[in-house]
Amino acid sequence: MAKVSLRSRLFLSHLVVMGIGILTLAIIGRLYTPRLFVISLERYENGVLSVQRRTQLVKGFEAAWSRGMLWAILVGGGTAGGLSYWVSRRIIRPLDQMTEVTRSFAAGHLDARVPPSEILEIQRLASSFNRMAADLEGVEEHRRELIGDLTHELRTPLTIIHGYLEGLADGTVTPEPELYQRLAGETTRLQRLVNDLQELSKLEAGYLPIQAQTVALCPLLKAVVHPFSDQFVSTDRIAITLQCPPDLPLVYADPSRIEQIVINLLGNALRYTEKGSVAVNAWAQPGRVYVSVVDTGIGIAEEDVPYVFERFWRADRSRNRNSGGTGLGLTICRRLVEVQGGKIEVKSELGQGSEFTFWLPQAKGS
User: Which of 42, 187, 335, 364 lies at a CB distance of 3.0 to 4.6 Å from 203, suitable for a disulfide?
Assistant: First the structure.
């Protein structure tokens, strides 16, 4: 069965409606108008007109009515047909434009947008389409950035490993324990990057399981902070403190994921604090329990603060790379907090330190 375009359907539907109207008018007029004319004529003539004269008047009226009806059909039908065609084109034009935009999208022109329409329903459709187009453009931009950043992150360790292996193969590099430790360190960084990417992809796809339960935060925070404190107990370089009130309400979250978040934030704070202090604080507000990690490190510039949770972002790429970071830790922290129903924020000032704060939902009845 041949498919008919929407424009043709609209035009034909208008013609059908117009045809039914004209046919109804013609039938009713043909059947009843002469009869009504005769009745009116009898009412006003009072027997003056003869039967022959009356018949001539009726026939003249029918002829005039027929000619008038013919011209009305021609003029009215033509006008209505033209207006129907114009209206159908006006309705279909935005849909044709939308078709062209989708073809442009398929060809890779992601900046194409549907122009506004005066028709409310089509305008709603155009707005929804433009929002979808903007989202797709953002996804494609993030995909390109991810590929570029991932390529950048992989190039450095692979280049180092390849160079040392070539040197070992041709004898220009002496095999020493320090060399093998360096190679092991680069492969460890590659493995960490792959693991972080896998975990982030599972988080964003919703495949990473979250075993939420009622959790007491203070014992968990102590278990996390204590190993870090032991590492710095023999030096006066950094002081690590924990403030957690004993009556802190319970939270409803995954304890292993909370540990992962705090370890990431605490490790990040220690990485960028050469001397000073790192404090872990916990407190409660109605329905929420907050945890913050505050350091006196190098801080983040004000213009860079909005980007700290984006994947592979770093204000100082060389510093982060040398310290072994993958650029994904804070991104993973944000997603872990969000999938547990919370939110994470950052406040920072360059040269003064940073404060990362996240909250989790309070357990019911606590």
Answer: 335
DSSP single-letter state for residue 349: E
CA 302 to mean position of chain CA atoms: 26
Long-range contact pairs involving 126-133 (C-beta distance under 8 Å, separation at least 24)? 126/94, 126/98, 129/98, 129/101, 133/101, 133/105
| Residue 219 to residue 201: CA distance in whole angstroms | 30
In this structure, which amino acid lies at residue 192?
Answer: R
Burial class (CB in 10 A: 0-12, 13-18, 19+), 201: exposed
> Would you say residue 1 has pLDDT above 60?
no
Strands (E), 103-250: 213-215, 238-243
**CB of 346 within 8 A of CB of 333?**
no
Q: Whole-prediction pTM value?
A: 0.57
CA–CA distance, 262 with 278 (Å, rounded to integer): 12
Tokens standing for residue 24: 């109804």
269 backbone φψ class: left, alpha, beta (φ>0; ψ -120 to 50): alpha
Calpha distance 225→244 (Å, rounded): 12
Amino acid at 92: I
Element (H, E) at 261: helix 255-271
Burial level of 311, CB count in 10 A (0-12/13-18/19+)? buried
Nearby residues of 190 by Cβ (< 8 Å), 6 or more positions away: 154, 157, 158
Cα-Cα-Cα-Cα torsion 151, 154, 159, 162, nearest 10 degrees, comes to -120
Which residue in the block uniquely carries the two structure tokens 């190039």?
155
pLDDT tens digits, one per residue of 126-179: 888 888 888 888 777 767 776 776 776 677 778 888 888 888 888 887 888 888
CA distance 310 to 325: 14
Choose among 43, 29, 28, 38: nearest CA to 59.
38
Residue of higher predicted confidence among 154 and 267: 267
3-class SS string, 3-39: CCCHHHHHHHHHHHHHHHHHHHHHHHHHHHHHHHHHH
Residues in the chain: 366
CB 352 within 8 A of CB 298: no
